[in-house]
Amino acid sequence: LVLSKKKREEAITKKTTHSWTEIYINGQWVPFCPTNGYFAEIPAHYLELYKGDRAFIIRTKNIDFDYRWKVSERRSSEEEVLYTNATNYFNILRLWATLEQASISLNLLVIILTIPIGATVVAFARNVIGLVPFGTFMPALIAVAFRDTGLAWGVILFTITILSCGLFWPLLEKAGILHVPRMAIILTLEVMIIVGIALVAINFGYKRAAAISLFPLAVLTLTTERFVISIIEEGWSPTLQRFAVSLLVATAAYLVMRWTFLENLIIAYPELLLSVIGVNLLLGSWTGLRLTEFIRFRSLYLRGPNEMSGQET
Fold first, then answer.
1. Which of 26, 147, 298, 312 is the most buried (most CB within 10 A)?
2. Which structural domain, as residue segments, surrounds residue 69?
3. Does residue 283 lie within any of the structural domains?
4. Domain for residue 257, yes or no?
5. C-alpha atoms less than 13 angstroms from C-alpha of 123 in its C-beta half-sphere
6. Can you give the pLDDT of all 313 residues of the chain as single tens digits?
7. Are strands 69-71 and 21-25 parallel, antiparallel or unpaired?
């Protein structure tokens, strides 16, 4: 059906239909429309109603038969918009279908696509708020690890494991063990702690606590190493403060990365990751006071330049 342009509020009523030919070439059906001069394309104003070798409408002879096509504008839902052209080569859903055929789960793709967003949350916390967690993007990785266990159990497992390994580290240091074997022992201890907590939680009916995978173990090991090095260099008090900050930033990153609307948006339009680059360009050019600095020096800020110059004289 060839559509014509009319005002949005007006419906299109047509009786005649238009046919074109498609030829199978190298595994693809290529459309030809010699009447209107189109080759290898179906124009946007062509509404495809039927495909086949037979006539679209067959009727008995010598009967009073008539028909009309009435086309009016209707707003489509998001789901219809996403899946209408799923077979189009430039439609991102075709890419997801190809990846699913390669046994790459959609959940893994969501995790990969939302990691830059979690890293942006960490950048905002550092540059604008002034929070300094462990590592550069460690809170974003911790947030990914929380996806397996959930936020509550993730924080509990993370806290118990890190603190237990931190208390056990001085014993290994006194034994004079080299760094790599020491980290292997810490990893073994982490596995034992996680398995023990999972067994206890399952006995009490909390099966979610047993949902742990290899990636969280790697994140725990790296965080434990940072935690212990911070204890050696700065002491327990600053280290615990940075640990609390890391959990706070990881929680914020987790909530943003697990926002259902954002997950659906980024999986449907992955090109939106370009906007993440733009946001980080803005964060990178931030030259103002951080929020923590404003709180720290608020007394000087509230005094004003006149009072400060008066005190200097």
1. 147
2. 1-74
3. yes
4. yes
5. 17
6. 566 665 544 555 665 667 778 888 887 788 888 777 777 777 777 777 777 777 777 777 777 777 777 777 766 655 555 555 555 555 555 666 666 666 667 777 888 889 999 999 999 998 888 888 888 888 898 898 888 778 888 888 888 888 888 888 778 878 888 878 887 888 788 888 877 877 887 787 776 666 666 567 778 777 887 888 888 788 888 888 889 999 999 999 999 999 888 888 888 788 888 999 999 999 888 877 788 777 777 777 676 555 555 555 5
7. unpaired
Q: Which two tokens stand for residue 195?
A: 């398995």
The sign of the dihedral angle between the CA atoms of 220, 222, 225, 229 is negative
Q: How far is CA 41 from CA 3, 16, 26, 28, 50, in A?
A: 16, 21, 16, 12, 16
| CA atoms within a 13 Å half-sphere pointing along the CA-CB vector of 291 | 9
Structure tokens at 289: 């006071």
Residue type, 308: M
